[in-house]
Amino acid sequence: AVILGSGVNQDGHTNGITVPNPDAQVSLIRRVCAEAGIAPGDLQYMEAHGTSTPVGDPIEAGALARALAVGRKPGARAYVGSVKTNIGHTESAAGIAGLIKTVLCLEHRHIPPHINLERLNPAIDQASLPYEIPTRPTPWP
């Protein structure tokens, strides 16, 4: 796997430490993609934070939807997953666990299912998302 870019940010002022800032998330994705010379719409897979919280997940889902729609060609498939559904939240190792999962997805050309997802948080409008959350093993697009 070749990493074309990376970045970090801080959400800034929100309603609490566990409440993400969608504008900061979108800004980060757009900036990293621009620095890598690609459009966010070119991304085929995003490894999300995805902690399954009632407040955080809809905010993150919306931010990813906004970011991944930029430059996306009609019919271009994209997937979003989170390693936390497979191995739990590894706290300080969560970032590297997600990176390892993504590299393995690329190597094996498959995206593992987002297990235990029976119904999406009702605050997330699935029909408006420019990506899918795989619930079964999915070939890399």
Can you characterise this structure?
- With 141 residues, the protein is mainly α.
- It has one domain (22-139): Peroxisomal Thiolase, Chain A, domain 1 (3-Layer(aba) Sandwich).
- 34% of the residues lie in helices and 7% in strands.
- It contains 4 helices and 4 strands.
- It has helices at 22-36, 56-69, 84-87, 94-108; strands at residues 45-47, 79-81, 110-111, 138-139.
- The strands form 2 sheets. The protein has a two-stranded parallel sheet with strand order 1-2.
- β1, α2 (56-69) and β2 form a beta-alpha-beta unit.
- α1 (22-36) runs parallel beside α2.
- The chain is globular.
- The two termini are 16 Å apart.
List keywords for this structure.
141 residues; mainly alpha; Peroxisomal Thiolase, Chain A, domain 1; two-stranded parallel sheet; 4 helices; 34% helix
Radius of gyration (Å): 14 Å
- Outline the low-pLDDT stretches: none
Strand order of the largest sheet: 1-2
Backbone structural class: mainly alpha
Order of helices and strands: HEHEHHEE
What distance separates the N and C termini? 16 Å
Oligomer: single chain
**How many strand units?**
4
Helix segment tally: 4
Strand content: 5-15%
Largest sheet: 2 strands, parallel
Dominant shape: globular
Instruction: Give the helix level as a range of percent.
Output: 25-40%
